[in-house]
Amino acid sequence: MTDAEFDAWCRQALDEVEGALSAWVPADAPAGLGEAMRYGVLDGGKRLRPLLVLAACDATRGHREAAMRAAVAVELIHAYSLVHDDMPCMDNDVLRRGKPTVHVQFGEAQAMLAGDAMQALAFEVLTPDESLVPLALQARLAGLLARSAGHSGMAGGQAIDLAATGQALDEQRLQDMHRRKTGALLQASVLMGAACGQADARAWQALSDYGAAIGLAFQVVDDILDVTQASETLGKTAGKDLDANKPTYVSVLGLARARERAAALHAQAQAALSASGLTAAHKLAMLADKVVDRES
């Protein structure tokens, strides 16, 4: 696949995801709730998680309707987590995706409810009429998403992050935090796409390893960008982790070693794909490049 073909696929996939999000996130939820939900999830973000779902589905020649629903669901979970993380009781941030955060725009109570509603909507999207997606696949997708978002995944990682503020973490503890907080949902995105298709034990393990590596690489690069890019480029407040005295890969390893760590994780992800036995995994390989080479 050429760079131009990959870029064209990304544009088409992103258009489909945006259209599905716009269709499924209700504008008419009561008392302005729909407006806050749509503000929090539409028209912004890299949509990496949906792209990973769809690329893994294509690699395993999977069920496209199920994969699109999984792509939307995982983005809803990601968006809800950002809405809650930005609130004053968590990271207290005022800028996200180049615009005021949801609680700044709509108030704290409405932001909390918008996040809650997006989380519930994710599982509603995953569980349509069984004529659209087989019940067994619905259950498998819901389980993968729930485990990655809950106490053993994203929410648990955020709890560790909050507790670690002002503390000195070694690399092992930092890695455990980020494998949960960021990596689990990215890994689940890959596996949800694979669950929509045909993946034998070898391919499943390889895709799991790929997802784990790329999930951690994403966070390492995020930490690097936080100290090397301006807020205008990032679309969020630059340097906020340093200002909040939070441990990051840059604060623990230094900038040069953090970059080496990102490169090593990228190599691990590519090696996992090579070991998968899948002949149509080129989109996943190029997404790994995109994660490491990004500037925002």
TrEMBL record:
Protein name: Polyprenyl synthetase family protein
GO cellular component, one term: cytoplasm
Single GO term (MF): metal ion binding
Cofactors (names): Mg(2+)
Species of the source: Rubrivivax albus
NCBIfam families tied to this protein: FPPsyn (NF045485)
Domain of life (superkingdom): Bacteria
Similarity comment: Belongs to the FPP/GGPP synthase family.
GO biological process: terpenoid biosynthetic process
Alphabetical list of Pfam families matching this protein: polyprenyl_synt
Keywords assigned: Isoprene biosynthesis, Magnesium, Metal-binding, Transferase
